[in-house]
Amino acid sequence: xxxxxxxxxxxxxxxxxxxxxxxxxxxxxxxxxxxxxxxxxxxxxxxxxxxxxxxxxxxxxx
Length: 62
Known about the structure:
Layout: E1 3-11, E2 17-22, H1 28-32
Antiparallel strand pairs: 1-2
């Protein structure tokens, strides 16, 4: 089951870690629905792909 997780590479306007997700990858919409979109991690997907959700915590790049 996926769940929200801090992304240590992103600092939002409030000085907090941005939020990404961890888990199997099948429940990303549920995990990210618990977090305001303005607080999402803004890292890029390491494979260059585009997605409506942030990359899995620890896998993205700036």
